[in-house]
Amino acid sequence: MTYLTEFIVQLTFSYLSTVAFAICINVPHKALILAGWAGAFGWMVYWLLETAGSGRMLANLLGAVAIGVCGIVFARIKKMPVIIFNIPGLVPLVPGATAYQAVRAMVLGNMDLAIQLGVRVTMVAGAIAVGFMIAQLISELSYRIRW
Amino acid sequence: MVKVDKTILLDTCLLAGRIMIEGGSEMYRVEDTMNRIVRNAGQSEPLIFTTATGIIIGLKNQPYVQLSQVSARNIDMEKVAGVNQLSRQFAEGKITLTQMRKSLIHLDKNTPYFPLPLQVLGAAVVSATLMVIFAQQYDWMDIPLAAVAGSLGYLVNYYVGRATKIRFMSEMLGAFIVGLTALIGVRLGLGREIDNVIIGAVMPLVPGVAITNSIRDMLAGHLLSGMARGMEAILSACAIGVGIAIIFRFF
């Protein structure tokens, strides 16, 4: 599979998953399309960094920054709360696979691996949260510069 | 400035705050909205204390205090958006306090939902696409099985959540059904990697967003709410883990 097809697959799949998850958590329908773009944009930032070899934490952090900035911009366009775009946008980034592997390792009695994976889940969640805070900082700064 | 009944004002505030917390809003936004409602009604200094399980609101140096319990915490963006819009309209003076209260009660009782078939379709798409994204393997053969398992799990979660009040039961049974469907599917040769199928199909149930949100709450200084929500998210993650674990243990 070439790099371009991979890129297209990642983009469409992250967009679709975000919109579908947005339907599951009852996002107002006029925000669905933009929420999808927030998710796809954040995931593409993560994926490009990850394939470029930046490491998991930095990729997660910058992906979350991208989602946060998208959320803030879209929220101003649509006059809706930021989290309407942030929460569905987060779905591709959330460490779901790692969390599952951690639980599975615990069930199968592999405690060392379970703890290792559990700590990784916490750290990824923390990186995402810090990414959002940076996005919020950027938005406050942009307010201050404009006025 | 129109004179308002302070009891009704506080009651409206509590209603708005409770709906927002139930919809999964961040705590600082809840406090901000409640603050705005009080100030826009012409009262100067509201005292607000919010946690994920209850809200207290009072007016400074006046004998008015009310509190409200928050018993359910879901993620429902329509509610958050609705309260936000009503608060904006109230700030612009387009609606009065009583009208706002009425609309809030209406919003609380009948939030518009997407029709269930559409939600199930959403769950199926989430499962199939996230399986590819998380596993980072392009195994197209597993997509139908993941979609079926994900939508079945979502349906079970939905109906059990309606049928019983026991917490975390719906997640557990939903995850169990996901695991069972994946196992049967793989045994029948409809899918190849049971791990990938389960990872994808369990995603509509997983509280990953809730975990991230709780960390955000904590980093923003709302330690109590962050802890309460984080604990709830961890418990429901454990419930899902148990549901899957049964499959792995006995089959």
TrEMBL record, chain A:
Protein location: Cell membrane
TM region(s), chain numbering: 7-25, 32-49, 55-75, 82-103, 115-138
One Gene Ontology cellular component: plasma membrane
Domain Threonine/Serine exporter ThrE, chain residue ranges per copy: 10-138
Tree of life domain: Bacteria
Keyword terms, alphabetized: Cell inner membrane, Cell membrane, Membrane, Transmembrane, Transmembrane helix
Gene Ontology BP annotations: succinate transport
Membrane topology, from the record: Multi-pass membrane protein
Stored PANTHER family: SUCCINATE TRANSPORTER SUBUNIT YJJB-RELATED, UPF0442 PROTEIN YJJB-RELATED
Family: Belongs to the ThrE exporter (TC 2.A.79) family.
Name of protein: Threonine Serine Exporter
From TrEMBL, chain B:
Threonine/serine exporter-like N-terminal domain location: 11-250
GO MF term (any one): transmembrane transporter activity
Sorted UniProt keywords: Cell membrane, Membrane, Transmembrane, Transmembrane helix
Primary localization class, coarse: membrane
Pfam families reported for this sequence: ThrE
Listed GO CC annotations: plasma membrane
Lipid bilayer topology: Multi-pass membrane protein
GO biological process: succinate transport
Transmembrane segments: 113-134, 140-160, 172-190, 196-215, 227-248
Subcellular localization: Cell membrane
Family to which this protein belongs: Belongs to the ThrE exporter (TC 2.A.79) family.
Protein name per Swiss-Prot or TrEMBL: Threonine/serine exporter-like N-terminal domain-containing protein
